[in-house]
Amino acid sequence: MPELPEVETVRRGLAPVFENAEILGLDLARPDLRFPFPERFAERVAGRRVLSLGRRAKYLLADLDDGEVIVAHLGMSGAFRIETDGEAVGGEAETVAAHAFVYPRSQARAHDHVVFRLKAAAGGVPMRIVYNDPRRFGFMTMVRREAIASHPYFRNLGVEPAGNALDGDLLARLFAGKAAPLKAALLDQRLVAGLGNIYVCEALYRAGLSPVAPAGTIATKAGRASVRAERLADAIRSVIDEAIAAGGSTLRDHRQANGELGYFQHSFSVYGREGEPCRTPGCGAAVARIVQSGRSTFHCPRCQK
DNA sequence: ACTGGATCCTGCCTGC
DNA sequence: TGCAGGCAGGATCCAG
């Protein structure tokens, strides 16, 4: 599920319930996910209030009222769902849109690993936020707010791909002199933080750039932006912004009848479309799949140079 | 300094 | 129908 647009969608879905809520307790179904949970995780979280739910790259950050931050990464298959204790929630289900729907309380499902039990808001019902992760590539830890910037997870993270931070000049500077293919450079979280396999493929298609072209070819000899760099920066911003607006992409996750979650997957131009026609008008070539550093790359061999 | 490959784990799809 | 093999949205570590 989760590249940046999906994580942002999760954040927006959880925030109305999680922010300002008091955590009554934490239930852990096992001692670890990808890594062990932090020492005394449940005790440190119990009784704390969540001040805000933020995001950096693909990380979720829940700021607590004692200066600690719960840091969560969804890995490949992590997902949150919100449950009530069975009462109808009326309009609240609408507020909590996109990737986090409010479900009636249910029996624990397979691969439910963490449950945050929340105190009922005034006039509301108690909520539970459940973390489910079949592959357990996700992880959670706790870091003090002032230590976030220097923490190993964050200190080497590159620029956010959405918003105004990323432009052709910056991208050209980051990629100047690099022999690695554009695909690999865009997946490198130290350069641009938050892109994953899907959105890299889509951005390269939009920019008309070959995934195998050396990253340094988007910079001039002086390290300045070229037309290619500007096109790529524009493509990254537009694909990420559009995907966030669409609620992210939902793949292999269709188990819930009411959970037609994100819908950006319907807008893919190349990802998962091997053998299908390129969508560029008049192109007519078939989308190709190649493997770069062990992962599938989808591209149009005719449009992308 | 880079790069590709292996690795963690489970589920699902394909092909024999 | 059963089962082996391959593949999947991530990110780190290691050898070359």
Task: Describe the protein in words.
The structure is a single chain. With 305 residues, the protein is α+β, with helices and mostly antiparallel strands. It folds into two domains: 4-147, N-terminal domain of MutM-like DNA repair proteins, CATH 3.20.190.10; 168-299, Helicase, Ruva Protein, domain 3. The protein has seven helices and eleven strands. The strands form three sheets. Strands 1-7-8-5-6 form a five-stranded mixed beta sheet. Strands 2-3-4-9 form a four-stranded antiparallel beta sheet, covered by helices on one side. Strand 10 (288-292) and strand 11 (295-299) form a beta hairpin. Helix 1 runs parallel beside helix 7 (227-245), helix 4 packs across helix 7 (227-245) and helix 6 (197-207) packs across helix 7 (227-245). It is globular and about 55 Å long. Residues 88-99 and 254-259 have low confidence and may be disordered. The protein binds a DNA duplex (16 and 16 nucleotides) through residues 1-3, 6, 34, 58, 73-77, 111, 133-138, 178-180, 184, 187, 189, 196-199, 249, 251-252, 292-296.
Helix-strand blueprint:
Layout: H1 4-18, E1 23-28, H2 41-45, E2 50-56, E3 59-64, E4 68-73, E5 79-84, H3 92-95, E6 102-103, E7 112-118, E8 127-132, E9 139-144, H4 168-175, H5 182-187, H6 197-207, H7 227-245, E10 288-292, E11 295-299
Helix pairs in contact: 1-7, 4-7, 6-7
The protein binds a DNA duplex (16 and 16 nucleotides) through helix 6.
Q: What is the compact description of this entry?
A:
The chain contains seven helices and eleven strands. With 305 residues, the protein is α+β, with helices and mostly antiparallel strands. The strands form three sheets. A five-stranded mixed sheet has the order 1-7-8-5-6.
